[in-house]
Design goal:
Chain A: Pfam families: SBP_bac_1. The complex is a heterodimer of chains A (567) and B (287). Chain A is α/β, with parallel strands linked by helices. Chain A contains 24 helices and 13 strands. The chains are: A alpha/beta (567), B mainly alpha (287). Chains A and B meet through helix 1, helix 3, helix 4 and helix 22 of A and helix 5 of B.
């Protein structure tokens, strides 16, 4: 008995010890040697620093990788001695970030999405002001014009947004944001008509389906799953001639915010969809399908039209493009159209130049060596490294002509479009998600920083069928079909930060719950009952306290306008 | 002897109860325990006054109840059927196949279910149309009234094999001589099941029932979250999803804890009631 007790207590001790070590472990990986000499400036070139690995969390799904396993990351490691172990999101962002907060242990660098407010309010980021002053001459050069917009209420900068435009603004040749998309065969058969109104657009689809019975075509489809419900609720705003401000429309004159969820524009849009459904042209499964099913349907080429943002359906569009390249037939590809309700409305699909100040990259309080990290960030923001992360290596992934203009040969374009190459070379990890020259930036010599916005590249990347299509519409690039964006200093209103758990946030959640319930009902209802259900919805909606929310947004817009105008 | 386990129990089961105090605060994660502002019963009030709450509770209880009844009936039936099998190979095959789905995560399982129920090319609609039972495909996940049924069937598909294991184990403890004696007395197969097998596993059934009643508010979260959508939200949203939306996703941890407390207290009451009833009826019980 005595012997047994002895062994049992041994076992207990061992178990307790292993528990304790399990709890304290994990803090020291990556700290391979961080004996940097602080204060020696950004002399990554002058001194050979020990190699060090930091952790980096990106709140989107993707493949986990070490940056030095990519070509770009390797070069950056040679410059700075820093490698990042990139971890991507698995599952739900808010849950993951919640675990970080609850355990108060973070990766060194964080790139959150919508959960950034939560991290800010929990004090997860370190203030960067002093670090930038001391070690970040390039960061200062790029971001100083936007300091007003970046500072939190306490005057500190906690993260670097990725939208700081450097140099002259270059607008995008292709549609990167929202639009009504239509299959090219529909346009082709109708003789490439100029379509402007929602009615024309839907009629085009109606006629095509009528002419092609028995082909199992889907007229119109929508994406409605959990986090992507906005793809169904945003179109009324665009149809009424406003850019994507989120759940509100901001008046151009008075800057007053209006939640359009109960407005006539929403009713009109839903009524059109309801009509479409009654004719059997709307895909009823839109309301039950998950995102994979939706993407599969679009990639199948059976869907004639839909509204969505390019970055949401990019995967399917790329698949269709690859197929079109093989067959030489672009019938199943899509074209973006600036559809509005009435002839006299000016479309505003293209984003005005803007500074998105609620997304960005920050250094966490758990970071072991913020100085090395900020130096790495600073080093990224040299012209040379921006060229490296966007264009790659001269002679390999881009070429320069005798006038100093950057371009890509057809071969280089195909290579840099291939997903596998983008991963191994590192474009996929470095074009975005780091401190960078924002979209539309240009270099001092006039070249575009982003390869996609360089007119030479855009022209070159158009296939023969693209060119034919452009010619039919008398334009040089696809975005020319769209009206130029008006100046909106508050844009985008969706980036206004709403306090966690505040009445305004509860309102948006309740609104979304309500819409999730009523929009399917409204679209799928018998057209005769539409008005009745709409009235019911509006009644429910008015109970939620929309006035307070609108007031808050109006105030915040005014604040942002003042900040931008430097008041 | 038991001291290490007592320590373990206190550290891991009782000390965390201190965290319940968060339910009475406006908890902000970055601040220390003593810098928090106290909010009294604010979060409980929000929880119970929200008009969603009644619906959410109804769904939670209804889905739990369906799972409980279906789970028991199907698992016991399958266990009896398997027990009657004489061919060992066939028995093993059936058992393996029936408990394989248990190891699929709900994320994958719900994708399989959604695809099977899909209105374009889903196997359920195809079969029903082929049999002439329905004329056009039904949006199974788009009709709230079907949701509880779909969930119940899915749970059975996923867990029935797993749940039989404990009953099969209980059945092996029945003395074979009882069966022989019954056979000599002229009892048929069904009489043997009714008079020997079922009474033989009764104590296990009662204990499991008591424990599961204690878990009535834990319907699980994944299937409802993954299969739920705007059209069936009236039937699919349960307490856990409500807490996720208005608590965790909004950084309102206090509300989440308040809901957790509520669940624990209700479960506690249910467990004790069930146990008490079992005691009154003179049955085996948990404690």
């Amino acid at each position: 008995m005595k012997k047994r007790r002895f062994w049992l207590s041994c076992l207990t001790i061992v178990m307790l010890a292993s528990l304790l070590s399990a709890c304290s472990g994990g803090k020291d990986n990556g700290k391979v040697g961080s004996n940097t000499s602080a204060g020696s400036g950004n002399g990554a070139q002058e001194e050979k620093l020990d190699k060090v690995t930091f952790t980096y969390f990106n709140a989107v799904a993707g493949k986990d990788i070490n940056t030095n396993e990519t070509t770009i990351g390797k070069i950056l490691e040679e410059q700075t001695g820093v490698n990042f172990k990139i971890e991507h999101l698995v599952g739900d962002e808010n849950t993951k970030v919640g675990t970080f907060i609850a355990s108060n242990s973070y990766p060194d660098v964080l790139v959150p999405g919508g959960s950034i407010d939560k991290l800010l309010s929990s004090g997860s980021f370190i203030p960067l002001n002093d670090l930038i002053d001391q070690y970040g001459p390039n960061i200062k050069r790029v971001y100083e014009p936007y300091y007003n917009l970046m500072k939190a209420e306490d005057g500190n900068i906690y993260f670097l947004p990725m939208s700081a435009v450097v140099g002259e603004y270059i607008s995008a040749p292709n549609i990167e944001q929202g639009a009504f998309w239509i299959q090219r065969r529909v346009l082709k058969e109708a003789g490439y008509p100029k379509i402007k109104t929602f009615d024309d657009y839907l009629n085009l689809i109606r006629e095509y389906v009528k002419k092609h019975p028995g082909e199992d075509l889907t007229g119109y489809i929508a994406l409605t799953t959990q986090d992507q419900f906005f793809a169904l609720t945003n179109p009324p705003m665009h149809l009424a001639g406003y850019p994507n401000d989120g759940g509100v429309i901001i008046d151009m004159e008075t800057h007053e915010a209006n939640d359009y969820a109960d407005d006539d524009i929403t009713k009109r849009y839903l009524q059109e969809l309801n009509q479409l459904n009654a004719e059997g042209l709307f895909d009823k499964s839109s309301f039950v399908d998950n995102r994979d099913q939706y993407l599969a349907k679009i990639a199948s080429g059976k869907v004639l039209g839909f509204f969505d943002y390019r970055w949401q359906v990019g995967q399917s569009m790329n698949n269709l493009r690859e197929a079109a390249q093989q067959t030489g037939n672009d019938d199943l590809e899509y074209m973006a159209l600036p559809i509005v309700f009435d002839e006299n409305i000016k479309d505003q699909y293209l984003d005005p130049p803007s500074f998105v100040n609620n997304r960005g990259v920050g250094i966490s309080v758990s970071a072991k060596d913020p100085v090395r990290i900020i130096k790495y960030f600073d080093n990224l923001l040299t012209d040379e490294n921006q060229i490296l992360s966007n264009w790659g290596i001269e002679g390999e992934t881009y070429s320069v002509d005798e006038n100093g203009r950057f371009y890509r040969t057809e071969e280089q374009i195909n290579q840099t479009n291939a997903e596998a190459f983008r991963e191994s070379f590192g474009f996929k990890y470095f074009e975005y998600n780091w401190p960078r020259y924002g979209n539309g930036s240009s270099l001092p010599d006039g070249n575009s920083v982003g390869a996609g916005r360089q007119p030479e590249v855009a022209q070159m990347s158009y296939s023969d069928s693209d060119k034919k299509l452009l010619e039919a519409y008398g334009i040089q690039s696809f975005s020319q079909l769209f009206a130029a964006p008006d100046v909106r200093p508050w844009y985008p209103a969706w980036s206004i930060q709403i306090e966690q758990g505040s009445p305004a946030q509860i309102f948006t959640q309740k609104k979304s719950d309500l819409q999730r319930k009523y929009f399917p009902k409204l679209v799928l209802a018998n057209p005769a009952e539409f008005d009745k259900i709409w009235d019911e919805y509006v009644k429910e909606f008015n109970k939620l306290g929309v006035k307070d929310y609108e007031q808050l947004m109006t105030d915040e817009v005014a604040k942002k306008v003042d900040l931008v105008q430097g008041k | 002897m038991s001291v290490p386990f007592l320590i373990w129990l206190i550290i891991f089961k009782y000390l965390p109860l201190w965290g319940w105090s968060i339910a009475f605060q406006d908890y902000k994660p970055a601040k220390g325990m003593f810098d928090q502002t106290w909010a009294g019963l604010k979060h409980f009030k929000f929880l119970f006054q929200d008009e969603h709450f009644v619906r959410v509770m109804r769904n939670t209880l209804a889905m739990s109840f369906i799972n409980l009844v279906l789970g028991f009936v199907t698992a016991i039936t399958l266990a009896i059927l398997l027990n009657e099998l004489r061919k060992v190979v066939f028995k093993r095959v059936v058992q393996t196949i029936s408990y394989l789905p248990h190891f699929i995560s709900w994320v994958v399982a719900s994708s399989i279910i959604a695809t099977a129920l899909s209105a374009d090319g889903g196997i359920i609609n195809d079969v029903l149309m082929w049999l002439g039972i329905i004329k056009e495909p039904i949006l199974w996940l788009g009709e709230g009234k079907y949701f509880w049924g779909i969930l119940g069937v899915s749970e059975v598909w996923k867990n029935v094999g797993w749940n039989t294991i404990i009953y099969l184990a209980a059945m092996t403890s029945i003395d074979p001589s009882q069966y022989e004696a019954a056979e000599i007395d002229g009892a048929g197969r069904f009489q043997r099941i009714w008079n020997i097998t079922l009474p033989g596993i009764k104590s296990v059934v009662v204990i499991l029932l008591i424990m599961n009643i204690g878990n009535l508010l834990e319907t699980g979260f994944e299937p409802q979250y993954l299969l739920g959508n705007g059209m069936n939200v009236d039937y699919s949203e349960n307490l856990d999803i409500f807490v996720l939306k208005y608590g965790i996703q909004m950084g309102n941890f206090s509300l989440s804890i308040a809901a957790g407390m509520f669940k624990t207290v209700v479960s506690f009451i249910l467990l004790f009631t069930a146990n008490h009833i079992a005691k009154r009826l003179g049955e085996d019980r948990l404690f």
